[in-house]
Amino acid sequence: MKKNIYQPIEAVIEDVRQETAAIKTFVFKPKSPFSFRTGQFIELTVPGFGEAPFTPSSDPAIAEKLEVTIMKAGKVTAVLHNMKKGDVVGIRGPYGKGYPLDKFKGKDILIVGGGVGLAPLRSFLYALFADIDKYNKIILRYGSRTSNDIVYKDIIPEWSKKKKVDIMTTVDMGDPAWKGNVGLVTTILNDLPLDLKKAVGVVCGPPIMMKFVTLKLLELGFKPQDIYLSMEKNMSCGLGKCGHCRLGKFYVCKDGPVFAYEDIKNMHDIWD
Amino acid sequence: METYFLKNEDILRFYALVARDYELYVPVKAETKLKVDCDYQFKLPTVDYRVESYPKVDKEKIVFSEYRSFEPIRSFFTRAKEKVADYFDPSADNGTERPLAICGVKNCDLFSLKIQDFVFLGGEEPDPIYKKRRETALIISSDCPSFKEVCFCLAFDIPPHVSEGFDINLSPLDDGYLLDFASEKAKKVAATLKDILVKAESRQLHLRNIRRDAVVKRLKEHLSHHQIPKKEALQEIVVSGLDSPVWKEQMQTCVECGGCVFMCDTCHCFLLSDEPIGTGNQRVRSWDGCLYKNFTRVAGGANPLKMRYMRLRNRYLKKFDFFITNIGFQACCGCGRCIDVCPGKIDIRYILRKLYEEKHLSAH
Ligand code: SF4
Ligand code: SF4
Ligand code: FES
Fold first, then answer.
1. How far is CA A18 from the centre of its chain?
2. Does B318 touch chain A (CB under 8 A)?
3. For residue B256, what are the domain limits?
4. CB atoms within 10 A of CB A259
5. Residue B276, in any domain of the structure
6. What's the CA-to-centroid distance between B273 and ligand 2, angstroms?
7. Beta partners for A46?
8. A interface mutation test: which of B272, B293, B327 has the most A CBs within 10 A?
């Protein structure tokens, strides 16, 4: 029997964690083990409503369970947010190329996240932690709108305790309870404890945030080929066939979703 | 290649024999509103052709089509809307379709199939439904003894007769047809036709060449009135024409009907959606097109192609930049279906010519 590329496999919701008012992390248990490389994405089916693409936020070494952190943004995610433990969804994939971990060996890795953009980066961090000896340093800079919009509140402090890891967070708008930095994420990108000669930047967040972070990194002296961006596009098939996700000569689903800035910088509409 | 002659009176037997093993489609005349008038002395035909199911059609109505049908040939391989999967039921399959035999396929259509093949057979995972249909289908192409006003295949060096990519080809002569049998599948068909086929004579082959050359000459003359840029210039003019006024100017009359993308034989975009059926759900694949407003809109609401002119430009970038980079040729075969169908009279030939002029003959 030929494989049907449009067919999802069944997965059961094992747990739902409320991250913020609009963001939840879902733990899925697929019918059969589902492995992915960090940075690859899946098409998630909400039965009867359709699919939407998400990059898993869990440890890619674990194939039995899959976590996806999802912000309520459209039709499919709204239905998903009402689903509970025990409900059934579908999963197709994984798709795309994921993070080029090979290129990061021996490097100082600067990771910049914005809002729910920390989700794919969480999976990326787990992949780095698993092989920590291969990398020189991991620097995470995370910004969210307010302190209520921070995801993985309980997990971030644990990451900070790990060796070779340096973490700073910021919020765009402060509040009395917030003791940390106030300002856009670009304001915590000065005086980074890294060696530019062997640094790479990995950025994930809303397009406007990625734009300004990219400009900032270039200004700091990062080379375009050392800045990696997660590009968001409307996607349907995930297979390089439906045509929705074209970015210049690429399809984001098949050639991305992570791109070196060098490869896309001359395209006219990358931030739109 | 084996070439045979088939008498006019035996053509129906040919169809009947093909129909024994295949789900056969044959050309019939169709009255449509798809007309672009020719504004000089060339008297070009305006009749249209449709490919109809052979068992259902009145056999008297079957004709030899002088040019491509109005519907794109891709519609046989991916339907405008069809089920592609049932949820979680790996045994679900699109069943046992009989293999297709499609008559009236022209060289422009064959060029388009190269693009469809790249999309649906290429990449890491081929589309199983397309693959099955495509591999089992018998493509019965034919020469174009004439052309429509909107035909411009030859502008891109695609001649109005075939050289590859078909199983059987028909070339009309006065008293019958020359049949080329190119593939193994075709040779099997030829074997069943032994008693009505005779080996082609060199006189007949010679006559075919004369006729083909005559159509090419006439089409060339017709195209000279349109001044369409050569295929070698397409990528350059579209990429450098990002800020051309032509996009906004042409999009003033677009009503976003989607006709151009749905009639296009090289367009391939689709959307997957899910619908309930019985107690379960099924996944449906529908043709989609980048001229539609929400084609690139993301869940959060952002849309890189907000304006109509951006969508038109995007369509050209896809056809003439993306495809030329990725497969080495443009995703446009010159069939002119998009020109025929557009209620806004938006004409790809005009847009390409404008882009060329702006780039190469700009006002000093
Ligand atoms: S575009 Fe060319 S090949 Fe196609 S129908 Fe017209 S003349 Fe024939
Ligand atoms: S056929 Fe014409 S009016 Fe319809 S979407 Fe295409 S360009 Fe617009
Ligand atoms: S999502 Fe279909 S081509 Fe990329």
1. 18
2. yes
3. 234-267+293-363
4. 22
5. no
6. 24
7. A50
8. B272
Mean pLDDT by 10 residues, chain A (272 residues): 82 96 96 94 93 95 94 91 96 95 96 96 97 96 95 94 94 92 95 93 95 96 97 92 94 95 90 78
Contact predicate B190/B21, CB 8 Å: no
User: Counting beta carbons within 10 angstroms of the beta carbon of residue B195, is it exposed (0 to 12), middle (13 to 18) or buried (19 or more)?
Assistant: exposed
Selected residue of A244, A252, A254 to mutate for chain B interface (largest B Cβ count, 10 A): A244
By CB atoms closer than 10 A (0-12, 13-18, 19+), residue A18 is exposed
Would you say B333 and B252 are in contact if contact means Cβ atoms under 8 Å apart?
Answer: no
The residues that bridge with A66 in the sheet, in sequence order, are: A28
CB A166, CB A194: distance < 8 Å: no
Instruction: Please count the residues of chain A.
Output: 272
User: What pLDDT shows up at residue B108?
Assistant: 98
Residue A230's nearest CA partner among A94, A117, A102, A103 is A117
The pocket around ligand 2, CB under 6 angstroms, is made up of: B 254-260, 291, 341-344, 346
pLDDT tens readout for residues B220-239: 999 999 999 999 999 999 99
Q: Where are the alpha helices (DSSP H) in chain B?
A: 11-21, 107-121, 128-136, 184-192, 202-224, 234-240, 246-251, 259-263, 308-317, 323-327, 337-341, 348-360
Decide which of B177, B210, B227 is a domain's last residue. B227
Domain span at A70 = 9-95
Q: Please provide residue A83's backbone torsions phi and psi, each rounded to the nearest 5 degrees.
A: -85, 155
Indicate whether B151 and B245 sit together in one domain. Answer: no
Beta strands in A157-237 (DSSP E): 165-171, 181-182, 199-204, 227-230
User: pLDDT at residue B37 above 90?
Assistant: no
Buried b (16+ CB within 10 A) or exposed e, B283-309: bbbebbbbbbeebbbbbeebbbbeebb
B222 falls within a domain: yes
Q: How far is CA A211 from CA A230, A269, B338, in A?
A: 11, 11, 37
Q: Is A236 on the interface with B (CB under 8 A)?
A: yes
Note whether A70 and A125 are same-domain residues: no
- pLDDT tens digits along B312-348: 999 999 999 999 999 999 999 999 999 999 999 999 9
User: Do the Cβ atoms of A270 and A233 come closer than 8 Å?
Assistant: no
Q: Report the C-alpha dihedral over residues A170, A173, A179, A181, rounded to 10 degrees.
A: 40
This model of the complex carries an ipTM of 0.91
In a domain, A253, yes or no: no
Degrees (nearest 5) of the Cα angle B146, B149, B155?
85
Q: A50: CA distance to ligand 3 center in Å?
A: 15
Which tokens belong to A78? Answer: 């709204």
**Nearest to B356, CA basis, from B216, B210, B178, B233:** B233
Query: What's the pLDDT tens digit per position in B130-157?
Result: 999 999 999 999 999 999 999 999 999 9
